[in-house]
Amino acid sequence: MTDIKLQVPVMADVVAKGETPEYLYWVGCAGAFDDRYQKVARAFAKILNHLGVTYAVLGKEESCTGDAAKRAGNEMLFQMQAMQNIEILNGYEVKKIICTCPHCYNTLKNEYPELGGNYDVINYTVFLDEMIRTGKLDLGNNPFKGETITYHDPCYLGRGNDIYDAPRNVVKAVFGEVKEMKRARSFALCCGAGGAQMFKEAEKGDKEVNIERTEEVMDTKVDKVASACPFCMTMLTDGIKLKNQEESLQNLDVAEIIEKALEL
């Protein structure tokens, strides 16, 4: 994170002061290395700072959760990555983890326990929804007045972990309404990048999955499409570019919507 105005506490520094943050923010590979998703990580960190909750990131101590290795069939590499992370997390006595990536969320929540990593893992859309419902986040400003939006369900968030309402509630808190695509919620179409598909060449076929999904977004005739996953953001953004819709359609992460509403 290069924003000089943004102060993000690092777990090693916080613990060295004798403090124990309530949350560990798991940034994920995309939040650390992808230029586009770094903006989402910054947006969420700004929101955490705005809320005044105590949190920290692992910084250079954070490694990949091993999701991609496991989906690609390399169980040994997954377990090596997982055990390394669990050793660090347990060393800091981490109890609560917030994730902005559904793939990190799914792996930490559902696959780390059998390896000794037992944590209260929270998806950031659920966290934001709770903050709004309890009045801790006051969204009095609507910078998107007059604009319409749809929401794309990430597979690992929706079908994988049954989180459908929280991200919609967050988007509705700003936009007032979410225009649903013809395939939504448990019937939503994958962006085409999950299951380690992000890291391999496309197979033969008539159309890329992300183009099909982008066309479904376009069918809703909205100004914005909200997403809650780095893979989905990459695929939708590419689809928007390939369909030459950059002037009329924008992909924003749920955290970015709240960041703009709060004028952070």
From TrEMBL:
Which key words tag this protein in UniProt? Answer: 4Fe-4S, Iron, Iron-sulfur, Metal-binding, Oxidoreductase
Domain Cysteine-rich, by residue range, is 23-109, 149-236
> What would be one Pfam family of this protein?
CCG
This one is known as: (Fe-S)-binding protein
Which organism encodes this protein? Paralabilibaculum antarcticum
Give the organism's phylogenetic lineage: Bacteria, Pseudomonadati, Bacteroidota, Bacteroidia, Marinilabiliales
